[in-house]
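ligand=iron/sulfur cluster
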Amino acid sequence: MSKTDLSFRDRPINLDEYGSRKWVYAKRPKGKWYTRRTIFSWFVLLFFIAVPFIRINGNPFVLLDVAGRKFIIFGAIFWAHDTLILALLMLSFVLFIVLFTVTFGRLWCGWACPQTIFLEMVFRKVEYLIEGDYRKRHKLDNAPWSLEKILKKVTKHSLFILISVAITNTFLMWFIGSEKWLALISEPISSYSTGFIVMLGVSGFFYWVYSWFREQICTMVCPYGRMQGVLLDSKSIVVSYDYKRGEPRGAKTTGDCIDCRQCISVCPTGIDIRNGTQLECINCTACIDQCSSVMKATGKEPGLIRFDSEQGIQHGHQSIWNPRNRAYSLVLLVLLSFFVYTLVSRPIIETTILRTPGLLYQENEDQTISNVYNLKIVNKTHENLPLEIRLLSHEGEIQMAGNLMEIEDQAMFESAFILYIHGDLLSSDKTEVEFGIFSNNELIETYKNSFVSP
Ligand code: SF4
Ligand code: SF4
């Protein structure tokens, strides 16, 4: 075994033996898979840009309002206290990713992940346009500074900065909503200087990622990429090299691989897929296109590199279904059913009634005892709700400004009220009381708390 074989996986492919970065100059991909991926990326980009502007009945389609602890996902509103529903949603999402990865490997990474979409379909295309394909870029980077090099670099990096600012602002709209964002940018910067500095910081981070850090996010940082080792097995359908057909490789051998290394030159993470499935492979399919064009040029069948499983290459047949992903699918189905049930059966409001801290009770001249309560109600519907609070467990009186509340759609109502109960009706110093929240005389939620008395 040679030294190279022994040290094959001592370090990531883009680091040299001293730990220094080896810049990947990937050749521009071309072919049927790249065309498909480009078209798909247009839809992903359109979705990313359009979502903050989509409204359903005047409400955002998606809004991740972390500060307001409110999340709107595909029109459904979730509040931070919808813990069970959000936990089920997260669990279902994680399990879906696991199921998808077990079956199709890192397909998400190459085709739908924003990191790849922005890097491969936006930033790299700007780079191809200004600096040309891989050989020209390599030559330019190694050339001494000249007017042409300065012009190209300044133009490229200026565009990179502009795109990074645009991406940050689009992301911002996902979190604060397009209307708030439009209102914000129409004000002078001094009125939101902290937010502006944060926006510049995030834009700077994106610029750094897409202009310098690049594929290292996928190979060294992303935890999802790191999980591939435990998720993939011999039945997972991934970008694979057919070693049975390709080996022995070489120009004058019986194997179909002519060892032209074109599949390496086009790989954005710089790996050689002929070494088998590797951590760095994001399933972008660039090597499939490249090898297929080599196969056609040499008069051989395309598909030496293709989507296939280890079992498919070994035994000539592949199957999407196997016991492992069937079991995951079953668990996912159960989780999703539970999620849907919890979602449709959740109350339309969320009420919290707590005795005001620091206050005990008050004895009144008319023999009644009074307690003060803090009230919080969240309206989870898309309609304004007229609400009324009544005491269900005892005869008593609730004194609150108006007592009838009109809560706007998705709004939170906070107030305080005083509850009076006649002393004769209280059997102990701490009595359980039950409140009912009514809308148009219909009971929609109940809430229990205690009433303290002498
Ligand atoms: S592109 Fe195809 S033929 Fe060329 S080295 Fe890669 S696998 Fe072999
Ligand atoms: S090995 Fe092929 S599919 Fe994997 S990242 Fe490289 S070019 Fe893309």
